[in-house]
Each structure stands twice: as structure tokens, then as C-alpha cells.
Amino acid sequence: PLQCRRPPPTACHQPGSVCEAAMSRLARALGQVVLLSVAIAQDRDGGKEMVITNIMHDDPEGHVLWDEQNNRPVQFWRGNYSDVNTISCHRSGDLLFDWSALKRAMINWLKEMLRQTNRVMQVYWEAIRPVQHALTNIVAFHNITTSRDCILGMLSVRIFYMTVQSQRYREHEMIESNNFVIDWYYYVHKFRWAYLSRSGWGSVLWPSLSLISSYAKDATPHMSWVDCESLPGAEDLIFLGNNYDAPIASTEQLRRLMSVLEAAEQELERVRACPVAFAYGATVVSLVSSDLEVALQYLDLAQKFIRQYREANDFTLVNLINVQWPLFQTLALAEQRVAGELGSDVPTTCDLLWCPEGGTPNPLTCTCEEIFAQDTPSITACIFMVDTRRKSSLRNITSVLNARFWTLTYGINRAYADEHGYEIEYVQPDSQAHYPERKVGWGKVKVVIDKLREYGPERCAYGVSIDTDAYFRTSESLASAVYHYGLHDDKLVLFSQEYHTELRPNNTFINGGFFIVRNSEAGVGLLEEWYNVPEDYDDMRHLKKENPQGLNLCWDLKIQPKHADAVVLAPSNLFTAPLGWWIRHNWFKDLRFEQEMQDVLLQRLQRRYGCIVCQNVFDWDDSLNTDVGWR
Q: Is residue 560 over pLDDT 70?
């Protein structure tokens, strides 16, 4: 079978070929049930052909997925698969993605798709477009076997992502590359289907697979197959061509179907002759039963039955999306009624974005909390935002709604600075003065050095650099953090600890998107030493222009080892990451981030002016620049 999986062109496409014959002999020798010997999938790009097999594995529940690259069993998530609260990801603890918001967006769009309403494109624009960047990032950059993020959310996003791609892309990913073997193993062998419903992720998974299955049956009819044309023992109730629950017209018929399925549960060897038919029968019970607990019980039973189908060459999901039984369509309908009763298809999100009375929004509790003691002496501070793009106007609601992220972060950070009496400057760096023959990121270090030396410690006792994709989410003073971390005493600079340092645990330290430095000769001198690393070390010279993380690497590899005692590495959950608490640093820069900042800024302006849609412009911005700031 392995030789037949991806053969050279024309090797297995002729009836009676050596490859097909060998596969048939092997199946007979092993006593396997051959459901469909071969199906040919044409590679439209290269003209090559491949073989999709459908041979029943002789031990469908005892197999071990193997990581061929590392020559070991696949390493799965080590969390608690039975903890519904944890797998639901109601509160985003991973700092990267607001899983409840992603879940809600996907569910809302899938509902419109399954109902085939005329609001599909509108809901896509309203719900999916703002989180599209996050969805793409999850699919492209996160390992589903090692990541410590919301594992069930990541798996659901991967399946959902296929619904909004072209059929050609789906065929490449799901059939030709067969990239969902591990995903399906998680769903069938790791997570109970009743828990999928309770967590809300079933409302993403099953509708997504329903759409994908419908697309596949239209596009690849040659891959259609069936294990049995009716359910053994209930042939008059469950048979191909019936309309989901149409034959179940009475309580007596439902009881008879349930009796057949419960008997089959005790004889799984018999189920293996018709595993999809039995799974489909169980989903029908889940759909039509009036008892919620019975519906959940039969979802688990359907899962138990579908485990009995495992394709010997790991084409299990590939074949299931092409099976003639409307398995996924019925699962989607059953999930809709179950999740509707549970309320899990309407995930709630924390909408607390700002604490006007003080404190910091805690996304885990959705309350305002004080992170640092507030009874500290006041300080002078200068906040610098450095970007080559000019900011646009924020004079009225129209300009706020048209502004891009670098202008919105400046608006919020300025409101924060005004509230506490700090100075803030938005600086467009000069290529010759601030980053000659360097990447532009180096410019912010030189700007802070020059400005602090120009203004002096009386005007600016502390300098703050904050990137233009980051903003102050807190209402607490800078002084509270300065005194908490000892920057008034023996520490010279505070950085956020870089998010996820496990890949380079001994030489990954800072995220340069936010830092506070004491405006002293030693403090500013430390920044200058950092800026000079590419000049002072030959092995660092290439980082003047190479590597987006070159600035951070120069600190991590040369400055941190020498000056660790003078450096604060503050928790990343407070000072960096897209869901940071004190400082929100969203390097995804997606549309949802801009919408969030519009909300925050308008809340602040409403509190300041008493209105949002005012006749008079906001007098805090005397800019005459009214464009959206593209330059």
C-alpha cells in the first residue's frame, strides 16, 4: 500500500495493474475488509496521479500515530481532555488569541452558511474579516502537537479555515497532502464528542466538516463510496437516500433504532462491517431525541462507532468526507440543537477594555484590578513612539474611525499620558541621524538616547519607548511600575520578557516593543552600548540590516549577559503579547485590533468631552492632517 500511495505517473491507474493487484492480495492475506480498492486523484498542477486507498485497518483502535521525522510516536497535548472549562478556552490565558471571540465569529458565519441566507457575505465581513489574520497565523505557524495554546481551538480553526478556501486548496491540503491525520485522531480518540458540544467547539467542527463534505462530493464524485447501503438490524429506518430523521416518525421507531445501536455497542466486531452506517444511525438519534442527555450520550456512541473505521494508509478523513452517508451534515444538525439547548453556541467574551476609575483590565476575571501599589511618589516621564509613517488626525469621530493602528495607538497613549501628566512624542526618525545603514527598528533606540540627553533627567526622569502596535491598556501610573521593579533604586532598564522563550531558553530575553529606562548616565549609556553592538562586535555586524529580530538579538547575546543585574525582565503577560494586560502589544496588527482600539479611544474621548458625535471637533488634536495616514 505504501508503494501505491504516491506512485509515479500512470503506475496504478489502469485496472489490473501490478500495484492494484498487489494491494488486493495484501488485503486478502490480512483478512481486511476492502471497502474501495483505489481512487485516482489527479494533480492538476503537475499532471501526476496518486492513489487514495480505502482498506480497513485490522486494529482500528489500537494503532499508534508515528512521527517519522523524529522516529517516535506523535506527541499529543498533555492537558486534561475532560475539563470542559479548560478546553472551552472561555478566558484566553495564552496571550495570543481571544479564543471566545474567534469561536463566536466562526459560529456566526457557519450558521449563515448552513442556512444559505443572503447575509453570508455581510456576516463574513463583519465577523471573519476582523479575525482573518489571527486565523491565518494559527494555521500557518502553530504546531498542534507541541503548542501550549488552546489546543481544541487550534484544531477547530484548522478545519474551519478549509471552508473559506478554494476547492483546489482543500484538495491539496486534505487529499493530496493528507494534512489532517493528527487532527482527526484528536477528534475521534482524544476528545469526547459530548465535550465538544459542551465546549462550543463542536459548533465550529461539525458545520465546517459538513460544508467541506458537501464541497468534496460535488467536486470529486469519483471518490464517492459507501460501507453499507442500510443499517443492519434497522434496514427500514436507516438507509441511503432517506432524509436524516424522516423515517423516525414515532417513539416506537426511535426506541427500536436505539435498541439496535445499543446491541451493536456490545459487538464492535459486527460494527466494523458498517462503521459509518452505525455512526450515522447514532447521530440520527442524537438529532431527533427530545432528551438532551440522551442526545449527548448518542453523540459519544457515534464517536465510538466511527472509531471502528480506520483506513490502513491513513486516508480515514479523506474517505469520510466523501462517504455517501450524510454523516457530517447530520452531525451539524445534531450539534445545532444540542449546543442551542446548552447555550454553548453563543460564547461570551470579556468586553472590558479600559478601567476609567483606575486599575487594569484582567481578561481572566473580566474585572479591574490593581497590579502594582499606587501609593508611590510621582515621577516625570517622556514617552516616545517612533515610526516612519506619519500619524493622521484624531479631531472627530470620522477621523477616529478612519485611522490606522499607528495613529490609534498614539491616540490612546496620548490620552494615558495626559491623564498622568507625562510627555509623549510621535517621532518620524531620520534615516541618516537615527538608523544609517541599518534596519529602521534601530531608529527608536537612537531617538530615545538623543531625546533623553537633550531633555535631561529633571524634565524626563524616565524614558519610555513603546512601539506603534502597542498601547497602554492600564490606568495605573508609570510610577507604580517604576517603584515596583526598582527602577528608582538599582535597576536601570525594564523590558518585557519575550513571549515563549522555550525554543531558546538560555539566550532569549527581551521584547523590544516596550521598555522603560532611567534617564541617568548609566541608563542612557546602556542604551548606547546596545545601539553600538553591531559596530563593536564583528559577529553582530550583519544584524544592522538582517533579521527582523536583530535588535533584540543584539541585546540578548551581548548586553544581557554583561548587565543582567541592572535589567528587569518583566512578565510578558503584563507588558507584551496581543492580549497583554498592562501594555497590549499586538504584533498581528489585524482589523480586530484596530476595532478594539477605536472602542478604547472613543470611550476615553467620551469621558473627556461628554459626547462622541459632537458638533465641535475634539480640541486635543490641532492637526490639520485629515488623511488616514498611509504615508
A: yes
